[in-house]
Design brief:
Layout lengths: L1 E6 L2 E3 L5 E9 L6 E7 L6 E6 L5 E3 L7 E6 L4 E6 L8 E11 L1 E6 L3 E5 L2
Parallel strand pairs: 2-11
Antiparallel strand pairs: 1-3, 3-8, 4-5, 4-9, 5-6, 7-8, 9-10, 9-11
């Protein structure tokens, strides 16, 4: 089992920055991909970015160049650094951990609200 706890959300003005954290615990040694997703009101959950244990990253076109993702292996925390935030970035952000074995196992955090508004 994997437990994920996000933190760092809040209200920020357009153009501002925010850093989200995802603290992981449990059976995390076999996690193949870490990810951040977001879900805006009335919309489907969408991928924001992913990072592998080896540090390979992938970003959605809408956030590329503005968001960065990193992982502190010592403390098992995954960070999402968001800059140049736009009102359309407003959403609940979820941390995800994915394992591959007999199928795909996805683990989710509880989500943290990010609101970009003046």
């Amino acid at each position: 089992q994997v437990l994920l706890v996000e933190s760092g959300g809040g209200l920020v003005q357009p153009g501002g920055s925010l850093r989200l954290s995802c603290a992981a615990s449990g059976s995390i040694s076999s996690i193949a991909v870490w990810g951040w997703y977001r879900q805006a009101p009335g919309k489907h959950r969408e991928l924001v970015c992913t990072i592998t244990p080896g540090g390979l990253t992938n970003f959605a076109p809408s956030v590329k160049g503005r968001f960065t993702v990193s992982r502190d292996n010592a403390s098992n925390v995954v960070f999402l650094q968001m800059a140049s935030l736009k009102p359309e970035d407003t959403a609940v952000y979820y941390c995800n951990a994915r394992k591959f074995g007999f199928g795909i196992s996805d683990y989710w955090g509880q989500g943290t609200q990010v609101t970009v508004s003046s």
